[in-house]
Amino acid sequence: MSIVPILVLSSALFSLGVYGLLARRNAVMVLLAIELMLNGVNINLIAFEAAWGTVGAIGQVFTIFMITVAAAEVGIGLAIVILVFRNRATANLDDFTLMKG
Amino acid sequence: MTAVFGLLAGAILFTGFRVVTSRNVMHSALYLVGALGGTAALFVMLSAEFVAWVLVLVYIGAVIVLFLFGVMITRAPMGREASLDNEKRGFAAATAGLLFLMLAGSSIYGFKDVELQGLGETVSTADLGISLLGRFVLPFEIVSFLLLAALVGGIVLARKDLTPGQEEEAGAV
């Protein structure tokens, strides 16, 4: 089986994440879209690993690093969303206009 | 193998599409579970079993629960909600579509000759462990420290600040 269908699938997943990132209004939904994008990149790494079979499973090692960093990002991101919600009583990104000139 | 991949790709794309278009925040988070489960099955198909189980445990087990807590704490509109998307949806769809054409086009053009190896011919979990704790042990420790720092930072950010009087009470308990 060729690698191309898997790359197209991961491209589609990444693009869906970009759409969600730009179109969503709620901060939690934007974080969900970022997870979708990271997932597409993970599929790419594993696909190339399965195609070329690098010595020492480098593709899988990097996928595990990405999953760890994504978990850290979600923790910090949701903490910031909760903090902003406590101060502004909304999670709507269009309402965060404090630094608008 | 191709039929299994087609089935998985369809499931992942459908659930991924519903994640970004669903009118209900809770449904979006649960559709993300579907997309991640499909991805884990795809990883098993590509003989990356350990990463597949890491994905199930870390994402579906921990990150989704964190998201559900986030949805509940920020009192995001739980029912059907028309104002979940902003007014720039057309622009967002155009950007995503162009990006998809660019990424898919370059993938097809650049890697059309690359074939997947058969199942079982790629690395095993033992190789992954030796690599992770051998050649990549320093990045492994750094990333574990990053996760610790991020989670401590998350607690510090999200906890309620106590006034001096409350701090004394909390210390006395």
Task: Describe the structure in your own words.
- The complex is a heterodimer of chains A (101) and B (173).
- The longest helix of chain A has 31 residues, at 58-88.
- Chain A starts with a helix and ends in a 13-residue tail after the last helix.
- In chain A, α1 (4-23) packs antiparallel against α2 (27-52) and α2 runs antiparallel to α3.
- Chain A has helices at 4-23, 27-52, 58-88.
- The relative contact order of chain A is 0.13.
- The radius of gyration of chain A is 17 Å and the shape is elongated.
- Chain A contains three helices and no strands.
- Chain A has 101 residues and is mainly α.
- Helices cover 75% and strands 0% of the residues of chain B.
- The mean pLDDT of chain B is 84.
- Chain B is mainly alpha-helical and 173 residues long.
- Chain B has helices at 2-21, 25-45, 49-73, 89-111, 125-133, 137-158, 164-172.
- The longest helix of chain B has 25 residues, at 49-73.
- Chain B is extended, with a radius of gyration of 22 Å.
- Chain B has seven helices and no strands.
Compact summary:
Chain A is mostly helical and 101 residues long. Chain A has helices spanning 4-23, 27-52, 58-88. The longest helix of chain A has 31 residues, at 58-88.
